[in-house]
Amino acid sequence: MRLNSFDEWSPLKEVIVGSAENYVSHERELSFDLFFHDNIAKDNASRSEWYYPRLTANGGNRASQPIKQRYVDELNEDLDGIVKTLESLGATVHRPLPLDAATAEVRTPAWTASVVPPLNVRDNTLIAGNEIIETPPMIRSRYFETQFLTPVFQRYFEQGARWTVMPRPLMTDASFDLSYARSTTAGGPTEPIEDPQPSPYDVGLELMFDGAQCLRLGRDLVVNVSTANHALACDWLERHLEGRFRIHRVHRLSDSHIDSMVLALRPGTLLVRSAEVAEKLPEPLRKWDLIVPPTPEHNTFPQYDDDDLILTSPYIDLNVLSVSPDTVLVNEACPELARELERHGFTAVPVRHRHRRLFGGGFHCFTLDTVREGQAEDYLS
After folding, report:
1. Where are the domains of the chain?
2. What does the DSSP 8-state code read for residue 253?
3. Nearest to 372 by CA among 78, 80, 19, 86
4. Residues 135, 125: Cα–Cα separation, whole Å
5. How do residues 203-218 score in pLDDT, each as one tens digit?
6. Residue in 2, 43, 10, 16 with CA at minimum distance from that of residue 123
7. How high is the pLDDT of residue 39?
């Protein structure tokens, strides 16, 4: 089928589900720590505010954090379950190329980083109607991640899709706007970012941005902007999409991604973390019905060892995936959320996803919907 995805809820026909093959470690370095800066350790009462080891304690600006193989094996089991569920609901599922175990590092003229597999495929691509837009990455280890999706993108291109790559940043330390991390932190898993190192490739602040910073609403895109890097990328999007989409900026709704803060489940209905989140949205969206999920009655997360790096807040399970305007994939560990959705007329399909806090993503993060039935409708006028 031809690429066609304008919103978050229309009947889902084709989707990419990420891969965790050969996921062995997280690499702590400046871009990684900035990206996960908002995931505050005090969300987990068993860990102290500065639980995570500082980079300086590891003798440099890179530190590898191994991931236990049993977690990866269980993640792969859960990904297979997501695929089977989506197929049972009538969607065609595509998968990325697997990361070869021999591919250990990515190198550019400015830096070297480890490579991670294409798991959270929502992040580095924005599907805007009939166009694939590869976005400028914010984490160095994910710099070439969209290349694992090339066979899928190539087929859509051959069927008539537009295919665009936003400008690739050099990503030296000087490329990053550090103001958000320096001005909004309440403590957390990362140390203060105080000592960026100079590079002969410094060009100043650059475009950096993830597709998961966008809420797609037909011909409208609500875009979260928290740094100068995001603002530059949003400038690019506005110029590139002018006449086809309207861009609505929201400021510092989160550090980056919007999809564990607010998701549109169907026209007129939002799933939001809190009423305060909704107050920051464009005025027309504030009139939509709000579903604010109840606090879970029990701790539904696995217990981890002290050396396991937690990357998300407990709100990660708001990261649901709509298969149609009345059907939503929900983590089976969240019966309270499922009951709340059902109370609002949705069918909640329970799917297992155990280690979402270790791998930084829920169902919406792990998937990239490429074909939905919806069109460029105007839901905000």
Report:
1. 12-258+362-372
2. S
3. 86
4. 5
5. 999 999 999 999 999 9
6. 16
7. 55
Using an 8 Å Cβ cutoff, are 304 and 51 in contact?
no
Alpha-carbon span 302 to 68, nearest angstrom: 14
Looking at residue 65, its pLDDT comes to 83
What is the residue whose two structure tokens read 């790096």?
A: 309
What kind of fold does domain 12-258+362-372 have according to CATH?
A: L-arginine/glycine Amidinotransferase; Chain A (3.75.10)
Q: Is pLDDT at 252 greater than 70 in this prediction?
A: yes
Instruction: For residue range 310-322, list pLDDT tens digits in order.
Output: 888 788 899 999 9
Unique residue bearing structure tokens 């908002």: 38
| Residues 6+ away with beta carbon under 8 Å from 186 | 40, 42
Cα-based angle 177, 180, 183 (whole degrees, multiple of 5): 125
Strand ranges of the sheet holding 269-272, from the earlier edge strand across to the other edge: 262-266, 269-272, 289-291
Alpha-helix runs per DSSP H in 146-274 = 150-158, 179-184, 228-241
By percentage, how much of the chain surpasses pLDDT 70? 90
Number of residues that make up the chain: 381
With beta carbons less than 8 A apart as the criterion, state whether 266 and 129 touch: no
Q: Is the pLDDT of residue 177 over 90?
A: yes
State the pLDDT confidence band at 42, using cuts at 50, 70 and 90.
very low
Helix (H, G, I), strand (E, B) or coil at 18: coil
Q: Is 335 exposed, middle or buried (0-12, 13-18, 19+ CB in 10 A)?
A: middle
Q: What is the DSSP string of 268-313?
A: TEEEES-HHHHTTS-GGGGGSEEE-PPPPSS--SPP--TT----S-
Cα–Cα nearest to 70, from 7, 16, 20 = 20
Could you tell me how far CA 348 lies from the centroid of its own chain?
22
* 3-state DSSP assignment of residue 238: helix
CA distances 170 to 193, 199, 368, Å, are 19, 10, 26
Query: What span, in angstroms and rounded, lies between the C-alpha atoms of 164 and 56?
Result: 39
Say how far apart CA 354 and CA 337 lie, in whole Å: 16
Higher pLDDT, 170 or 33: 170
